[in-house]
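Final report, closing paragraph on structural work. Over the funding period we assembled a curated collection of sequence-structure pairs, and we close with a single example.
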Amino acid sequence: MFEKGRVALKVAGRDAGVCVVVDSRERRVLVLGPRVRKRWINPAHLEPLSDTLDVDKLSEDELVEKLKPADEELRKKQIDFYELESLKARLRR
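Its predicted structure, as stored:
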């Protein structure tokens, strides 16, 4: 499911965000992303996305650069969600 080059969303932990699978072994995957530290993690903490990147042809810096727009879009959506919820809470008072 998490083959090399699969773009995923890390949903658990303090460094949650968009990442790419760089390697996989046994029950762990090595991920890298703009806000995700390069490390081995449990695949249960990932949600696969439909995109893939050619990990062998790109350097780590290039991979991070390609993922930045998707990560920024995700952050914007999260901020919008939180702003909407805070506005609803203020209106209920």
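The mean pLDDT is 88. Helices lie at 60-92. We thank the funder for supporting this effort.
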